[in-house]
């Protein structure tokens, strides 16, 4: 399982105290006025990153749930067709090896399971004469494999997006941490001891990477 994202939002208390001091003293120094604008922009950017991250995480979870459901359906379809073939040919038939699960970890991953579905579908075409359930079996396998293939593709797309958003969040957080410390030093130099009430290191609850 890939680790979940979310970088935690900046502490509202720390951000609020910083912005309040900048607003209070912005008229005393052009540097403080510039820093206030910069802080407001960065705070808005972080909020947008968080919203995007939450949506991306939700989409990723939904895609995983769909893929898991498709895997269950695919396993059921595979077993049903295998039972039909075993009933028709017998467990000791020379063709049985074509229709049983491949050895090893053939179904241990979604992509391997997909390959098994397609392998069994192709193997049915080798039967002569064709069993009466051949078309329905092939249709069942094809539908299951198409659904699973689509779910695999969607979950991978969402995973790639999740990783991209996490990387962007880390960059944004790093930029804000530096901006916070820069603003804190500037306030300290401009107004003195009042800035000491701000935490010396930007508070963050940690990341979920």
Give the SSE map.
Layout: H1 12-25, H2 30-89, H3 96-99, H4 110-124, H5 134-191
Helix pairs in contact: 1-2, 1-5, 2-4, 2-5, 4-5
Describe the structure.
- The chain is an all-alpha fold and 209 residues long.
- The chain has one domain (12-96, 109-197).
- Helices cover 72% and strands 0% of the residues.
- It is built from 5 helices and no strands.
- It has helices at 12-25, 30-89, 96-99, 110-124, 134-191.
- It is rod-shaped and about 95 Å long.
Could you name the ranges where pLDDT drops below 50 across 5 or more consecutive residues?
Answer: 1-7, 202-209
Q: What is the number of helical segments per DSSP (H or I, 4+ residues)?
A: 5
How does the overall form come out from the CA principal axes? rod-shaped
Main sheet attributes: strand count, strand direction, barrel closure: none
N- and C-termini, Cα separation: 12 Å
Residues in helices, as a percent range: over 70%
């Amino acid at each position: 399982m890939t680790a979940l994202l979310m970088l935690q939002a900046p502490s509202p208390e720390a951000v609020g105290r910083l912005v309040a001091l900048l607003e209070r003293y912005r008229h005393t120094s052009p540097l403080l006025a510039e820093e206030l604008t910069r802080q407001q922009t960065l705070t808005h950017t972080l909020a947008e990153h968080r919203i995007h991250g939450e949506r991306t995480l939700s989409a990723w979870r939904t895609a995983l749930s769909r893929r898991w459901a498709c895997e269950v359906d695919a396993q059921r379809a595979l077993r049903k067709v295998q039972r039909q073939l075993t009933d028709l040919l017998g467990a000791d038939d020379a063709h049985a090896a074509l229709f049983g699960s491949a050895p090893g970890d053939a179904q241990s991953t979604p992509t391997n399971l997909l390959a098994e579905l397609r392998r069994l579908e192709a193997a049915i075409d080798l039967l002569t004469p064709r069993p009466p359930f051949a078309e329905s079996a092939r249709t069942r396998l094809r539908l299951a494999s198409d659904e699973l293939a689509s779910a695999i593709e969607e979950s991978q797309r969402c995973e790639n997006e999740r990783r991209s958003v996490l990387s962007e969040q880390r960059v944004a957080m790093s930029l804000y941490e530096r901006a916070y410390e820069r603003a804190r030093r500037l306030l300290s130099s401009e107004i003195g001891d009042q800035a000491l009430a701000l935490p010396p290191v930007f508070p963050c609850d940690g990341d979920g990477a």
